Known about the structure:
The protein is mainly beta. It is built from one helix and ten strands, in the order E-E-E-H-E-E-E-E-E-E-E. The chain has one helix at residues 26-30, and strands at residues 5-7, 10-13, 18-23, 34-39, 46-51, 57-59, 67-71, 77-82, 91-97, 117-122. The longest helix is centred in the N-terminal third of the chain and has 5 residues, at 26-30.
Amino acid sequence: QVQLVESGGGSVQAGGSLRLSCAGSRYTISNNCIGWFRQAPGKEREGVARISLGGTTIYANSVKGRFTISRDNAKTTVYLQMNSLKPEDTAMYYCATGPDYCYTFAASWYKNWGQGTQVTVSS
C-alpha cells in the first residue's frame, strides 16, 4: 500500500520560510510524479508544485519564485521549500502521487494523499 507522510508545517510570520517534507518509499518517490497541494478553509484544493520522474518542476503562478520543489538523492522524500511566505499561503498542505507525464494539477488525477500538514502565516 502506498503511503505518503507530510511534515514540516507550522506557524510563521509573513516573510518567513518553512520546508515541508513528503516521505514515502523509494519506489513511490522515484517512480511517480509527486504533487504538492493546499486547501484553505472554504476553498477548493489547489495545486502548488509538482515534480516529474525526470525532475521537471512546475509551479502555480501564485507561488512561482517563492516555492521550490525537489526530490532528495535517496529518493525517499520530496521537499517543498517555501520562502517569502504570505498570509494567503495559510492552508493545509498535502502531497500525492500524480499521473504519468505529470501534466496536470487537477486533483482528481492524483491519489495516495497524505494526511496533510498545517501552514499558518500571520501578518
